[in-house]
């Protein structure tokens, strides 16, 4: 009897244990279920939907080359999958593990109604498996990474099966176009189309391009003006490439690559935090943040909008926020600066920023997003740094962001390097906003808020 492969954010054919396993058992029915109900407010945001559309189209094309195809269905997974099993006579569903709390619940619910076989492969080590000597999960990255490194290399990469056996006849599939995952009016996705090639081929092209410059990674990864990082984050998020594939392609190439693999390790670390604290995306881990005097009301909302639109008057922040809007991605150093600015300079609840990133990032990832926002805010299990307030202007200078600012904030393009990070009021072009708040005043306000929250 046929075997169903339930695909989620593991949209690849190679090193995909669920497909490999199913292909060895009988005719395979690969299915993607668009389920907005189970994740509820955590349903995918706009940029992720854009990516998903193209990634599903690419996966279907790759499956067709193997004599298979992708079946699309909509609804709650725990209803759709058992119904599909009944319709096709399938007795087993194979899938990769996912660790977002809603997916773990869905796996339980599906497993009650059909035989669900879950496989590993979206993390270097299965989340939860790396523990301290006493068997406790790690809360801090550095010891976690040390312990994880001892378990490397990850298992050998499995190639895609030569053929994926097809059932005698195919069941009905919904049409991808009917899912309306792409923006209609206004079509804001032009910048995304220019910047990305979703799908497994696009992922491997990125990996290859990165291999050629990986030796400069350690030295340049913090410089937003250089394209020194891998741009693999959306591909890893959607599982178009596995971290084991990345590891095996890169490992052993020297110190710079070790630094890079350590970053890939952050992705594993973040998922380990979520396994321990499933609500992490909506709940601060430290107590003072339960009663933090975040700004609310009309002025705060106007400031939030200015931040979202890249009109804060701080060039590095504005460049980052505009890069995000245009391409669905932002350089990591600038994500830290922009996030810190929202939380500390504007005193706006980190969850508002997390939500904006969730909607606009093509790599929006529940674990990585929440862990990095809480780290920046100082509210996380791994950080207590609210009082360390990043100075956006000196960060911009230190990390040599002039060319980056010129690219994303064209109003400032004519300013010399010495002025572009912090244009004097007289030097500001008329169409560039003045600062929402002065740095020193913001610092004092933030420290006072922290004192109040602590008491
Ligand atoms: P590279 O530097 O080439 O790193 C390789 C891979 O390692 C990345 O593709 C990513 O999978 C992983 N990685 C690198 N840094 C981190 C990190 N700090 N945390 C977790 N994984 C990491 N990353 C996401 O994938 N999704 C998010 O939703 C996300 N939200 C973030 C929010 C904030 C406020 C901050 C400060 C960072 C966030 N990051 C997120 C982490 C990081 O910025 C991106 O992973 C990175 O910029 C992606 O670019 P790259 O693929 O070129 O990274």
TrEMBL record:
InterPro entries: Crypto/Photolyase_FAD-like_sf, Crypto/Photolyase_N_sf, Cryptochr/Photolyase_FAD-bd, Cryptochrome/DNA_photolyase_1, DNA_photolyase_1_CS_C, DNA_photolyase_N, Rossmann-like_a/b/a_fold. The keyword Membrane does not apply. Its cofactor is FAD; (6R)-5,10-methylene-5,6,7,8-tetrahydrofolate. PROSITE patterns: DNA_PHOTOLYASES_1_1, DNA_PHOTOLYASES_1_2, PHR_CRY_ALPHA_BETA. It comes from Novosphingobium beihaiensis. Signal peptide: none annotated. Belongs to the DNA photolyase family. Keywords: Chromophore, FAD, Flavoprotein. The keyword Flavoprotein applies. This is DNA photolyase family protein. Residues 1-124 form the Photolyase/cryptochrome alpha/beta domain.
């Amino acid at each position: 009897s046929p075997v169903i492969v339930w695909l989620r954010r593991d949209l690849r054919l190679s090193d995909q244990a669920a497909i490999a396993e199913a292909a060895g058992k009988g005719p395979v029915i690969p299915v993607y279920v668009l389920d907005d109900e189970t994740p509820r407010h955590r349903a995918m945001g706009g940029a992720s939907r854009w990516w998903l559309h193209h990634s599903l189209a690419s996966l279907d094309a790759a499956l067709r080359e193997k004599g298979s195809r992708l079946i699309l269905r909509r609804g709650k997974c725990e209803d759709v999958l058992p119904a599909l099993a009944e319709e096709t006579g399938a007795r087993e569903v194979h899938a990769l593990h996912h660790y977002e709390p809603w997916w773990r619940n869905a796996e339980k619910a599906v497993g009650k109604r059909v035989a669900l076989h879950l496989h590993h492969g979206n993390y270097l080590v299965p989340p939860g498996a790396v523990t301290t000597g006493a068997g406790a999960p790690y809360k801090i990255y550095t010891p976690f990474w040390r312990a994880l490194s001892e378990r490397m290399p990850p298992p050998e990469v499995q190639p895609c099966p030569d053929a994926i056996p097809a059932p005698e006849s195919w069941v009905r599939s919904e049409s991808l176009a009917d899912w309306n995952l792409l923006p209609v009016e206004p079509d804001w996705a032009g910048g995304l189309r220019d910047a990305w090639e979703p799908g497994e081929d696009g992922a491997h092209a990125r990996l290859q391009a990165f291999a050629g410059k990986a030796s400069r990674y350690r030295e340049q990864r913090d410089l937003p003006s250089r394209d020194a990082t891998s741009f693999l984050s959306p591909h890893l998020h959607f599982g178009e490439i596995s971290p084991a594939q990345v590891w095996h392609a890169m490992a052993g190439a020297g110190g710079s690559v070790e630094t890079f693999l350590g970053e890939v390790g952050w992705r594993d670390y973040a998922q380990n935090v979520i396994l321990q604290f499933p609500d992490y995306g909506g709940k601060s881990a430290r107590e003072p943040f339960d009663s933090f005097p975040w700004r609310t009301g009309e002025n705060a909302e106007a400031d939030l909008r200015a931040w979202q639109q890249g009109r804060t008057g701080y060039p590095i922040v504005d460049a980052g926020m505009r890069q995000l809007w245009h391409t669905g991605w932002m350089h990591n150093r600038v994500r830290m600066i922009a996030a810190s600015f929202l939380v500390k300079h504007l005193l706006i609840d980190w969850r508002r920023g997390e939500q904006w990133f969730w909607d606009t990032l093509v790599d929006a990832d529940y674990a990585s997003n929440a862990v990095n926002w809480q780290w920046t805010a100082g509210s996380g299990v791994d950080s207590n740094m609210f009082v360390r307030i990043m100075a956006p202007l000196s960060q911009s200078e230190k990390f040599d962001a002039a060319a980056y600012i010129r690219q994303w904030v064209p109003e400032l393009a004519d300013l010399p390097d010495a002025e572009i990070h912090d244009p004097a009021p007289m030097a500001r072009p008329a169409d560039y906003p003045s600062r929402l708040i002065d740095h020193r005043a913001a610092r004092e306000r933030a420290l006072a808020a922290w004192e109040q929250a602590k008491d």
